[in-house]
Amino acid sequence: MGKFRKIETALKDVYILEPTVFEDHRGFFMESYNKRDFEELGLYFNFVQDNHSLSVHAGVLRGLHFQLNPKAQTKVVRCLKGAIYDVVVDLRKGSPTYLKWIGVILSEYNKRQIVVPKGFAHGVLTLVPNTEIFYKVDEYYSPEHDMSIRWDDPDIGIDWPVNNPILSEKDKNAPYFREVEDKINFYYTEEER
Description:
Elements: E1 4-8, E2 15-19, E3 21-24, E4 27-30, H1 35-40, E5 49-55, E6 61-67, E7 75-81, E8 83-90, E9 101-107, E10 113-116, E11 120-126, E12 131-137, E13 146-148, H2 169-172, H3 177-180
Antiparallel strand pairs: 1-2, 2-10, 3-4, 5-12, 6-11, 6-13, 7-10, 7-12, 8-9, 8-11
């Protein structure tokens, strides 16, 4: 039996990963990443950077973020402490799920992770105070390729479980999708169909 269970979602190439967790009276042990086991699941990544964030309040919303090609990033996201509502949006032109989104809860309790491939925007909302998020990426941060879309963009229509999130200035002033649509260079290829 593998150390991870790969669960398909409504968005092609976006997966939830459930690790095998060994628990006893002392606590637990799990592998959160294992290159060999990921590859056995068809997940081939060359991770180059780990990111770790703390949000001290519930209701902190970070997103919707992505990097353009050629510096697009695949992310594998998990919640170390607390709980988040994690949202992924398909931005690949020509995709059957173009501009569709999914939202999943990741928490310190369910220990789930989500695979966010290149070509998708990503956002997280903290559900409890002092939430810590950790994610691996397969491309370095590139300010020149960094982009955002408004969290409440009506063309995407995400049903966030909050009305007035706590936002950074960057996220508060992010453009609407239609304002940056022509700059987004992600395509759904024949190979993926």
